[in-house]
Structures are given as structure tokens and as C-alpha cells.
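Archive transcription. Copying these from loose printouts into the bound notebook so they stop getting lost. Printout 1 of 2:
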Amino acid sequence: MESRGVIIDEVGIQVLPVFDPRKPSEDYWFGRLANRIHVSTRAPVVRRALLFQEGSRVHSREVYESERILRALPFIKEAHIQLEPAGPDRAKALVTVRDSWTLQVDAGYQQVGGQRSSNFGIQDQNFLGTGKTVGAALAKNPERTDTQFTYRDPQLLGSHWALDGDYSMTTDGYGRRLWVRRPFFALRTPWSASLEGETRRFNLALYDQGGAILETPCGKDSLRLASAWAVRLEEDRVWRAGAALAMDDARYGTWSAQAPLGGFPAPLLEDRRQRGPALTLEYQRDAFQSFQDIQGMDTSEDYNLAWGGSLEVGAFTRRLGSNRPGPYAKLRAARGWAARPGSLTLFKGKLDVRGGGAESGRLAVESSLSTYQQVSSTYGWAGYLGVRAAHRPYPEDLVYVGGAEGLRGYPSYLHPGDRSWVGSMEHRFFTEQRWWGIFRLGYMVFLDAGSVHRVDGHGWSPVYPDVGIGLRLGDLKSSLAKVVNITVSTPLRRQPGRSAWQLGVENAVRF
């Protein structure tokens, strides 16, 4: 159709319910009740996400990219676009989407290394079918109790502008965030613009052996104004250039000891004001492919099998109020590989450099490599390796390993450091058991290990390995998560006073 110059004469929108009544496993009382009370996505919300309309010429890349844009929306579980002939040089585009269940009563509990975290919240990511998110949540963890209110609108006033806002009240402060932006929502989008602001007040804690040893009041404020343009556009790739003006301030109180320091040197606290202009450059190539059973189950997932990344180079200047002037640079890169069917490897990396001489210079590096190998329809394995390093990090940027960083048998924040590595390997078993059309049952056996280079002069810590088993519940209907993991793990390096078994229930997919 593209080669013949066919015109799209009509665009039809079909929004399917959450539960499919054509499937016996989903045609039961709960599924029928859920479909009745669910407010379907409105057709204009779907239409505004498309890269074509009535009167457009057929362009295959725009059709596939529109499918990916729809699948990336949290309230859409499936999306397919079919072109049907409607005449010698005319076609009809039938856009079919299946809603996900977006009204969430989210309750979670996690115990890692003897530390307990819990959360409860209610959120709708498709409020009244408009695609907007409205939510409130209460979360408790070893650091603080947080009450948060959220509002997000990806199609502000029916446009491609987006509005994100959060307000949180915590036991040690508060947080406010507001983003207004027009992103590069497609490969051929000609320009973008954004205004992002955030304010946080909290108690900054430093940890050792899973407990806080130092604490200080901290305030952080940031503001960023940016815009960029597509300067070179080819069939499947684009170069974008732009400019930005950034502000990043941090203020500290004084350290107060929460536990014996044990020889740990208290980091120097220095307030900073960093403000200055920057130039940006971004490269993106469209080499997306769709996969299944990678991070989720029974859901198409899109990954880019080409290099992409961004570069930002700027300078903080005294003229704009910086108390620590100097150049800075930020580099981001990502790449995917698929050597054979059922195989996928993903790389992500970032580098942050801040100049200003021997006293003010900073360097931070972070990279990860994830691989997924689907051996059969019922078995596959996944591996992950993450590396972090920081030169002269700010107190809030110290590196840790532990439960929060992926070592599921240990407490979070084992030791403060400036370098770390964490690796995991999971054997994943898939079954054809689908409970009530809501969950698909799977199992896993895993091994984690990691180490950190400590900043107290003791060099690299021992390697902390753990092993465990768990259930993987593929979330087939809701927008909350891809997989819910219920794990039991044990540390292979035992610590006095720590439980030999750790229970984890989490809906966040790390890899």
C-alpha cells in the first residue's frame, strides 16, 4: 500500500474490554462484573496517539510506531492496527486496543534483611477513560513514612503536551514536583520543549550494616528549561539538537550521629548552587522489535535493537549565581541485540562529569547489561550485571549494595562506598496455568551476588551471595505491574543477628 501511494480513507477505533468474553477462562462472574464497572478508554484518547489520520498516505513505519506508542500507554494492554483495502487507492485503518485494569488498590509488603517496608494506595491511570492518572498512596520504609498525591495528564487539553505533578508529605519533610513538556512522542516529531521543577526537604541518612549512622537535614531544588529540534531526519533515524538552562541547588544542616561510627569518616557537607546553560545532542534509530515473556508474560514488549543516546554539555557560571562554577557533561547510551529468536540482550549506560578543579570535580558512571534467553515455551533464563562508580560523590550519591540494590537475602545499605557491582541470574519456568484470567503462574530459582568498595578505607567488601526460589505471577490485566514476585531467599554469607530466611513480595521488575 505504501509503494502504491494508498490513502487512509477512514480510521476506526475499537476499544475491547479488560476481560475477553470469547475466552471461557475469562467469561465468568468476576470478569463480567469488572467489564461492567470499568470505564473504557475514550476513542479520542486513542486517536490522538496515532501518527496518521484520515487523508494520510499509508506509511508502514508510522503504523508500527503508532502501535508501540499505544502499547506504551499504561492503560492499554494490547494494541493492533490492521489496514484493509477500501478501493483501488483507498484503505481503512482499524485500530484495536484492549484496556488494562487501571483502578488499583495497591497494597504491598516486603521484608529484606530484617527490614520491613509496606505501602497502600489507590490510583486510577485512566480516570473516567481520559488517560489521566489520579492517585494517593501511603508508604512506610526504614527511612520514612510518605503520603503522596499524584496527577498525570499525557494529553493536556487534547494536545501532545503532558503535565505531571506530585506532592508528598513525609515524616522528615515534603516534596513537590511539576513537569510540563511536549516530548518527542515519535521519531519524526519536529521539536520538543519542557519545564521541570522539583523541591524536596528530607533527612539525609548515611548507612552501614543496614542501619543509619549519620543524619542531616537536606534541601534540594532543581529547575530546568529545555527545547530541542530535529536537525537531521532520515527514514529510520533522527539527530536532534537543543539548548537547556538548568538550576540544581542543595543545602545541608550538620551531621548528627545515629549509631557508633566505627571509624567511618563523616563526609564533608558543602552547600552548592549550580546554574548554567547547556547544549544537547540526541540520536535515535528506529530498530524496534516486539518480544513476549521477557519482563512480563503474555504481553508484547518493544525493544530497540540499535544504538541510541544523548549528550549534554554545559557550564555552571558565577554570572547566573553558581558558587561552584565549572563545566559539566552528561552522556546516555542504550543498545539492544537479538542474536536469534528468543534471545535479547540490553545495554544501558550513563556518564556524568562535573569539572571545577581538584576540589569540585565529580565523576559518576553507571551501566547495566541484561540478557534474556528463551530456551523453550516453558523455560528460559535471565541474567543481569550492574556496575556503578563515583569519584568524590556527594553524600546523597554514595554507592551501596544490599536488598534495595538487588541482593534479596540481605538488608539494604550494607556499606557506603564509591564503587559497586551487583549480578543476578534467574532460571524462569512458565506454566499454562492462568488463574481467573488475571495471573499466569511461573516459578524461578535465582542467585544474587554483589560487592562494594567502601569509603572507610577497608577496600572492597566481601562478596555477598544469596540464593532463593519464588513464584512469578504474570499480571495479565492490570496496569500496575508486569510481574508480581513472591520470593524466599537466604544469604550465603550469614551475619549475626540477621534472619536466615527473607520473604519478599514486590511488583517492580528489575530486569
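Printout 2 of 2:
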Amino acid sequence: MTPSENPSAQVQRKPNFENLRRTLLRQGPPGPVPFAELFADPGTMESVLGEKFPLDLRGLVLSSDGEPAAPAESSMDRLLKAKQVVDMILRFCYETGYDYVYMYPGIEFPRSNYLVTGDTASQKNWSAGKRIWQDEETGPIQNWADFEAYPWPTPQTVSYTGIQYLNTVMPEGMKICVDLPGILENSTWLMGFQSFSYALFDQPDLIKAIVQKVADVVIAAAAHAATFENVGMFFLGDDMGFYSGTLVSPKVLRDYIFPYHRKLVETVHAHDKPILLHSCGNLEKVMDDIIDVGFDAKHSFEDKIMPVEEVYRRWGDRIAIIGGVDMDILARGSEEDVRRRTRQILEVCGANGTGYCLGTGNTVANYVPKENYLAMLDEGRKWDREHFGTE
């Protein structure tokens, strides 16, 4: 692996995935608190590493005039084949002190129902300074005819190009984390959340069919990815909530989504590998379900919903907890604010030396100033040295 030429942070430590695994499985002996994130935005990587992201992601979903593009055939596969992109993600994870590098299987659910607006962040993700949003009103599937005509991916069409490449170049002590696409997320995106909500009452059989199609390919991809020697864990990104509750009722989640989550967890656990859940929003009413499904860790927390310390107190003896440094503090606070909040969290969640990983409340978004992100990591390393004599 070629190091970055002008990195803002290059951590002088050896990756220790076994320590991360021990932490996620809530095992002893106590040790340093590792870092964990679902992913980092391209703009963040550019800023931290001091180099240009080698691919304009805008072209994957937007046309040259900045409007939604027609679905591109195998766009994710083309992304993963860009060796420079994969190398940059690896450098970012290694040089900032993570024990794993995240990578995606190439699963395509083609759609063009995006809304486009300007990106006000100082660290742009895309060259045109655009940010895309999900169109929640509609999507490519509205009825059975659309369902039958849709170009569904199959297990045979999934690409593992990025994972295959990383499997051959992993630094000693480091593993691959396979980031899987969400089952609820993609099901709602294919219809638009509004149409999905109506269909729960008007076309429940169609909802069941869509969810099963999405889940089958995600689970099959996990089963194959788990066979790679250097794949160490999985992270499912499946947002299920908002500020005051779940996006759909807990009953809908229990009837339509959690059975497939359970099957996914069982598939990964059959290979003796942890699987983590990233899901935003207020999930208090379904936390017992998430734990019962068997996820090894839960990620994404927001102070105004429930501070991560309280989450750890309530459920940390049953599931590992990840992150919780609030995005608002990271985005708008001072470096000192970030350091203070990081230490507050570690004093509660990190004291046992297991069952907690330090990270943001969501992801390393491009609107988080580089200085604040690096301050969080630096404070975590200082805290580990003070409490465990090592990072």
C-alpha cells in the first residue's frame, strides 16, 4: 500500500482487528477502544489525505447538466473496478487508525428517482457541488406490471471486484468490512416512501414481493463475501427511524423486515463473523427486536433522541454500541467541544474496555470539518493511552 503524500493524519500504530472483534463481541480482557464508522464521504477523504478522489461520483447518478441520469448499467461495478478508489479508501482507513477497510459488493437496484440541490459543505463530494436526495413520492415500481418489468439483480450479477482486490492487499492485522445495502431502504426507494406507505394497505403482497427480492440478493451477497479469507465483518446500512420513532410501525418491521434481518445475521454468523447494524432514528421501541435478531452491534445515535451513554447503560450488556459523537457537535462545534464530548462518552462507554467503539453519530460526512473529525480520533487515542497504555 502506497502511503498518502500529504496526509493530515497518519497514525503510527499497527491495525489490530482481533481487538476490534473482541470489542464487538463484548469479550475480555479489557483493551483499548477501537474506532468504527459505516463509511466516510469522498470530500472527507480528500481533505484528510490531501489528494483528489480519483472518480467523479456524480456521474454515477447525475447527468452532465446536474439532473438525475437514467439508471446506468453496472455503475457500482465500474466504481469498484477503479483501483485508485479502492486504494484511497484503504489508505484513509489505515492512516486514520481503523482496524478494517470498508468495501461494497456491486449490487445494483437501478433507479433515477433523485432530487438534486446544491451542496453547501466546504468539502465537496462531487465536482459540480451538487447533493442528491431521495424522491420519496415515487419510484420505478408502483404496481405488479412494474415489478415484473424491473431489471432485478440476481446473486449471479453481484460483483465482488473491490472485495477480491482488497483480499489480496490487506495490511497485516487489518480486515475487510463488507458494507451491505439496506433491505427496508432499498424497498422504499424502489417505490418512493409515500407509495410504499400506501401499498402497505393497498398492495401488501407487492410489498412482500419487493422486500423478498431485495433481501434475497443481499443475503446471497453476504454468504459469498463471507467466504473471502480477509473479510472480517459485515455492516448493514438500513435506516429505520427518524427523530420521534420508526419510519414504519414496529409491526411492519416485525412482519416484513426483521425476518430477513434474522436470516442475514444467521448467514453471516454461520461463517463466525460479526455483523453490525447502522440504522438512524429513534428505534427505542424496536431495540429489543434488533437485539433478538442477533446483530452484534448497533450504530448511529443522536443526542436529542438519546445520548449514547444512555443507550450503552440500557442495552450495552446485550449488544455492542458504536459511535454517538453527535453530528451537530462535529459539524458546528469547536475542536474543544468535540474533544470534551468525546471524552464524556468514553468515560461511560469505554470504561469496561469492551462493547463500545468510538465514532461519529452517523458517518464521516463531508460537512464535518476535518479538524473536528481528527480531534475526535486524537482524543480517542489519548484516552486509550491513559487507560490502557496503548492505542
